[in-house]
Amino acid sequence: QVQLVESGGGLVQPGGSLRLSCAASGSMFSLYTMDWYRQAPGKRRELVAAITSGRNTNYADSVKGRFTISRDNAKNTVYLQMNSLKPEDTAVYYCHTVRDYLNYWGQGTQVTVSS
């Protein structure tokens, strides 16, 4: 059983920055790929960024060059640094991982980009 708890969302103006955090319970955090997804109203949930156990990263085209995913294995935490935010980045952001073929999701944190 894994619990994921996100934090760091909020309201920010276009061009601003936010850093999301996701704290994971359980052991062997360092062995697993961690992801960030987002879901905007009326749209499908989409993968934003992923980081493997070896710290290889992958990003959606829409966020490349603006978002950075990182992990601190000592703290069982994964981060999403979001810079140059745009109104189209407005969504609920979810932390996600897969263990033993089971999907685990956090509760989500709202990010709103608006002036």
What is the overall number of helices?
0
SSE pattern: EEEEEEEEEEE
Strand proportion: over 45%
Question: Main β-sheet: number of strands, strand sense, barrel status?
Answer: 7 strands, mixed
In which range does the helix fraction lie?
under 10%
Q: Give the averaged pLDDT, no decimals.
A: 96
Low-confidence stretches: none
Shape verdict: globular
Note the gap between the termini.
40 Å
Structural class: mainly beta
DSSP strand tally: 11
Q: What is the radius of gyration?
A: 13 Å
Record keyword descriptors for this entry.
115 residues, mainly beta, seven-stranded mixed beta sheet, four-stranded antiparallel beta sheet
Describe this entry's structure for a reader.
The protein has strands at 4-7, 10-12, 18-24, 34-39, 46-51, 57-59, 67-72, 77-82, 91-99, 102-105, 109-113. The strands form 2 sheets. Strands 2, 4, 5, 6, 9, 10 and 11 form a 7-stranded mixed beta sheet that branches. By secondary structure, the chain is mainly beta.
